[in-house]
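Review form for a predicted model. The reviewer records the input and the model, then writes brief findings.
Reviewer: anonymous (R2)
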Amino acid sequence: KTNPIFICHSYEGAERKAFKKMGDFPERYEWYDTYHTERLLSNNALKSVPPKGYHSLVECIRRRLGVCRDTEHKEAMRWLCISGDTLGNEGEIMSYCEEDTKDLIPLAESQIRDYVEALKSSILIGGYRKADPISLLLRQVKAIEIFCQMADCGIPVSPTRCDYVKKGAKAMIYNLKDAFSKKYKGSFVKKER
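Model under review:
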């Protein structure tokens, strides 16, 4: 017997919290996160930072499936749910949720096709190409869960430490690009600082 795979958009932002609120343990299940997968795919494909809202469910469905949604209504329903003032609005809330869920499977299928294509052209590191793409994507959500559990316990964060980490990451990226450019002269990697 296999466990079901839940498909959601923004596991750590919505579904995980909802399961916890109901007293269930979301880590017991397999999750496919369309938001995380879209970020993963676009971070590899885009040459610049995407505009605000690029990874929202409405925008992903529009781009990938050609389906347009009323964003004002969605935003109003979302805020209604967040406010907790749901009494008497249950039918409208369920319609709002149903509208979201009907496109999650086609959206996931579209992303998985792109992910499979991306894997075909990826550099093989540690033998991951032998694993099937779905298990790789599910494993990534498991990694998100680990960070969520850490956050549940509280992570002491210093703004100064965050700045050091960002500067270190930028320096690391620059050094990797520089080393790549030196090794493969005339490559597509730009030297930026």
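Findings: Strands lie at 5-8, 30-33.
Further findings: Helices lie at 11-21, 34-45, 57-65, 71-83, 90-101, 104-120, 133-153, 159-183.
Recommendation: see findings above.
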